[in-house]
Design a protein that fits this description.
single chain; 350 residues; alpha+beta; Heat Shock Protein 90; 2 domains; five-stranded mixed β-sheet; two-stranded antiparallel sheet
């Protein structure tokens, strides 16, 4: 999952009177009125539906009021129990208020009219059968939504932590390369430093973005390889082979850069003859497949596991793509290594 800005949840009266809640209360109460209307032989169905609406709104207000008040409850009382109980209490009181209103001015109180009493108990019992269950369902949905929000926040925090680990790792490695040129008195030091400044000016802001595109990643990688080529012009060659369909795909920052930097650091640098780096990106079967091959020193030991940089990259990709990402590192003959990356081909949202 990518970190995204979310709108703050409403609180107080705005949450209690949120339109989805009001529409749900009116809709359910109208449906209840329609269902029980055949039992009211002297009253039209539309009037029964109108009578049910205040009952639904009262249950909604009770649910919302005790969702936030009181702020603290005794340890033995769960808030959801209080909410459901108050919804159940609100129903008969709301039906009573409805009947007192519609019988105002009658010569006798409604509880002395058998038809009115029957109507009161019909509305009350149906309300008690339906409203608390709707409150329980709403509470369950709310708990699931809160759990999902907590999981997303934890995922975002973990992803940001991993990206923070990537940034100094990359910057320090690049600066160490420049230091080697300065220490050796190379005439290329100034040129390389200028290229590094231009590169970092474009690259550093992207390190903090939650997602970028494969095209942007390729631009950074090309700039990085050109920078490394200036440092060792006789020992590094590189080439790109990229599907046009891959350019707009979503890609976590520094994904491709990490693979190429790993090839330079562990393949080209340790080799006296240097080598060649080939970057291939293709889209096939709704998957993006990235391959970075080098003809450098190769893996030191057979079956060598992922290093820190690649392991961190894999964890970032697993977080972003919900576990649907793979990264493999294998040896090439007669020497060299190949890193293969596979993840869903998803277009970056505009």
């Amino acid at each position: 999952m990518v970190p995204t800005a979310t709108r703050p949840a409403p609180h107080g009266l705005a949450r209690t009177l949120a339109w989805p809640r009001v529409l749900l209360a009116l809709g359910v109460s109208s449906l209840m009125g329609l269902v029980i209307s055949p039992g009211f032989t002297t009253t039209p169905a539309t009037q029964i539906m109108v009578r049910e609406m205040p009952v639904g709104l009262a249950a909604m207000l009770a649910f919302g009021l005790f969702e936030q008040w009181p702020a603290r409850l005794p340890a033995w009382l769960a808030r959801w129990v209080l909410q459901v109980a108050c919804v159940a209490c609100a129903v008969p009181l709301a039906v009573l208020a409805v009947y007192l209103t519609i019988t105002h001015g009658d010569p006798a109180p409604f509880w002395k009219n058998p038809l009115r009493v029957n109507g009161y108990f019909t509305m009350t019992m149906t309300g008690l059968l339906v409203a608390p269950w709707i409150a329980v369902a709403a509470l369950f949905r709310q708990r699931e939504r809160e759990r999902g929000e907590l999981e997303r926040n934890a995922l975002d925090s973990r992803l940001r932590l991993l990206q923070a680990q990537v940034e100094p790792h990359f910057l320090f490695n690049t600066l160490a390369n420049v230091r080697e040129l300065v220490d050796s008195g190379s005439p290329q030091a100034t040129t390389v430093l200028d290229s590094l400044i231009a590169y970092l000016r474009a690259a550093v802001p992207r390190l903090h973005e939650p997602a970028t595109t494969m095209e942007q990643e390729l631009q950074l990688v090309r700039a990085y390889l050109e920078l490394m080529h200036m440092r060792m012009p006789d020992r590094l060659q590189f080439a790109f082979e990229v599907d046009a369909a891959a350019l707009g795909l979503r890609c976590p920052p520094t994904t491709l850069l990490t693979l190429v930097e790993n090839a330079v650091r562990h393949g080209i640098d340790p080799s006296e003859e240097g080598g060649r780096i080939e970057v291939r990106v293709e889209v096939r079967d709704s998957r993006c497949r990235v391959q970075v091959r080098d003809t450098g020193a190769g893996l030191r030991t057979s079956g060598q596991g992922l290093g820190t940089g690649l392991a961190t990259l894999l964890e970032r990709l697993q977080l972003v793509f919900g576990g649907d990402a793979k990264l493999k590192l294998r040896s090439l003959e007669p020497h060299g290594a190949c890193t293969e990356l596979d993840f869903p081909a998803e277009q970056r949202p505009a």
